[in-house]
Amino acid sequence: MSNPASPPAVDVLDERSPLTFPPGFLWGAATAAYQIEGAAAEGGRTPSIWDTFSHTPGRVVAGHTGDVACDHYHRLGPDVALMAELGLKSYRFSVSWPRVQPGGSGPANAEGLDFYRRLVDELLAHGIEPWLTLYHWDLPQPLEDAGGWPARDTAARFADYTTLVADALGDRVRYWTTLNEPWCSAFLGYGSGVHAPGRSDGADAVRAGHHLMLGHGLGVQALRAARPTAEVGVTVNLYPVTPASEAPADVDAARRIDGLANRFFLDPLLRGSYPADLMADLAEVTDFGHVRDGDLAVISTPLDLVGVNYYSRHVVAAPVEGAEPEAYWRAPSCWPGSEDVRFVTRGVPVTDMDWEIDAPGLVETLRRVHEEYTDLPLYVTENGSAFVDAVVDGRVDDVDRLAYFDAHLRAAHEAIEAGVPLRGYFAWSLMDNFEWAWGYTKRFGMIYVDYDSQVRIPKSSARWYAEVIRRNGLAAQ
Ligand code: FCB
Fold first, then answer.
1. 19-259+302-471: what CATH class?
2. 220-239 per-position pLDDT tens digit
3. Which of the chain's ends, N or C, has fewer CB atoms near its CB within 10 Å?
4. Which residue, among 434, 449, 452, has the nearest Cα to 32 in the 3D structure?
């Protein structure tokens, strides 16, 4: 019975009331080697597929390359000092394979390893937990010349490289990610070709995906052998995939894209098998003859944690005769066997990447991984947004990016309340950087980078994030 004298239910206020995260929640920010380091030809580093790709005319917007990037290689000290100012509890960075093992085989390059040793020591000296990603897309070029990820041997090379890094840094790095977003490496690198190495062959993309996961499994085993106490995981980029309508053909389109985008990786990694429906969808692309006995057992080697990168949702519909594919996915497609599925835009607000902003999708994604796949601790290892920034009187007031972070952190909290063992969150990105095929034209950073002067300016979102970390949660608004 309602009492008209009692105050109304305060849903709106409740929604915006302070939210506190669990004690010890790991607040961080992420970057990747090729996107920030620069010093492409220094200290014994040799080219990766991204050096070759970015130096190939027409591949990256405006011909941008990672040759200098944020010059982080020479600015490690001040950059870590900025992280400390933000109060980061953890920093997720990647090791450049061709910097520490030029050419991708043979002995370690001491000078390359030394850079990461100095970085890790600097982080530890500031009380920041280093989180090391072994592979954020920079395959040494000679390994691509020998066949790249579609070739099985690349997985074994990755395991050897892992041992080199684990031997050198395992005493001071606790958290390890083998691969970042194998979907992008496989399907953008070898399917659509919009990422390095820029090859376009559906069967190669599928083989690449398998060998990336095989490399991951062998890498986990190598890490465990070298450092039994390491906390080891993998980072996958996941999307909720929603049918544009309840029509069976749209629902089936969503099943197909979910198979390629999410279950292609989640099922082998966490269940030790490929989904039968996905294999059927790919029947005309490949016979999966590249999968050998025992591979799936290696791929599903037990982990300590799972990293989830979340940016947006896919809404899809059944093919329509004669319809143009949506621009971003234009042929050659990154969806082998499902090239005709239409990606639908809903008219909701988008970021500067044209990615729809969909914070509830983060709750769905985290709940799905937990409820359907694993009890392991989960970490959001990337989440963020590109927006056009303006420097006004030496300040960057990035209200849209701040709102994006705010909405997604509220979603992360909702997932925790729903029972997801979410243990940390890494903003993408610490600073503006080389956004792959978009070069420097897309800014994801909480810290603005002036690429001419290399001056860094913490944006409003950075100051806000520092406050979130200090409170271990979000203030009421
Ligand atoms: C992810 C990548 C990261 C960055 C963000 C925007 O797919 O892991 O390097 O490019 O997208």
1. alpha beta
2. 999 999 999 999 999 999 99
3. N
4. 434
Distance (angstroms) between ligand 1 centre and the Cα of 8 equals 44
Q: Name, in order, each residue with C-beta under 8 angstroms of 218's C-beta and a sequence gap of 6 or more.
A: 155, 156, 158, 159, 162, 298
The angle subtended at Cα 430 by Cα 120 and Cα 110, nearest 5°, is: 30
Find the helix packing angle between 460-471 and 399-417, rounded to 10°.
Answer: 30
- Ligand 1 mutation target, pool 93, 134, 187, 309, most atoms within 8 A of CB: 309
Both structure tokens of 387: 């927006």
CB contact set of 453 (below 8 Å; sequence gap of 6+): none
As a whole number of angstroms, the distance between CA 333 and CA 329 comes to 6
* Residue 476: predicted pLDDT: 74
Residue 16: pLDDT band (50, 70, 90) is low
State both tokens at 167: 């031997």
**pLDDT digits over 136-164, tens only?**
999 999 999 999 999 999 999 999 999 99
**What is the spatial distance between Cα 237 and Cα 177, in angstroms, rounded to a whole number?**
13
Q: Determine phi and psi for 240, rounding to 5 degrees.
A: -70, 140
With 0-12 CB in 10 A as exposed, 13-18 as middle and 19+ as buried, what is 200? middle
Other Cβ atoms less than 10 A from the Cβ of 147: the count is 15
Which residues in 451-468 are b (16+ Cβ under 10 Å) and which e?
Answer: eeebebbbbebbebbbeb
Query: Using 50, 70 and 90 to split pLDDT, how confident is the model at 176?
Result: very high
End-to-end CA distance of the chain: 31
Q: Which of 144, 181, 356, 435 is the catalytic position?
A: 181
Confidence of residue 329 (pLDDT cuts 50, 70, 90): low
Question: pTM for the whole thing?
Answer: 0.95
